[in-house]
Amino acid sequence: MRFLGNIEAKTDAKGRAFLPAVFRKVLQASGEENLVLRKDVFQKCLVLYPESVWNERLDMLKAQLRPWKPAHQQMFRQFVSEAEVVTLDGNGRFLISKRLQKVAEIDQDIQFIGMDDTVEIWSPKNLTQTLKTEEEFGIEFENIMNAGDAL
User: Fold this and answer.
1) Residue 44 is part of which domain span?
2) Residue 51 domain-assigned?
3) Cα 24 to Cα 48: distance, rounded to the nearest angstrom
4) Looking at the chain, which terminus has fewer C-beta neighbours within 10 angstroms, N or C?
5) CATH number at residue 11
6) DSSP three-state, residue 105
7) What average pLDDT score do residues 119-132 get?
8) 150: in domain
């Protein structure tokens, strides 16, 4: 499953958004129907997970945590309590709750970013503030990709 692209869209007055057709096709091809929407852990955006990907990530998190440690239990509780199951209606729309709109600072304009196995949903302002310039990106990309090379 590969979601790719940067697509501008809008929410309607009820907070519904159309999942871009290119992303709906990826879901259909993979047989996915159920989705989970959650705020990102690090950025002011939302992440839309196909259910199978959500379950994999949840299993990865649980494997790192010890259920009898209060701090671990609290982390797991917060992680799962901030997630919402969403479904596409017959027109390919899904509801972004008021709570999630608020934490991601989403108004009417949104941008969908395909992130391979998930889709991020951004306010254009937050996305612009987060992205690096082309020069900064090139330098950081080179540093990360060459980090294991011996000089």
Assistant:
1) 3-145
2) yes
3) 12
4) C
5) 3.40.1550.20
6) coil
7) 91
8) no
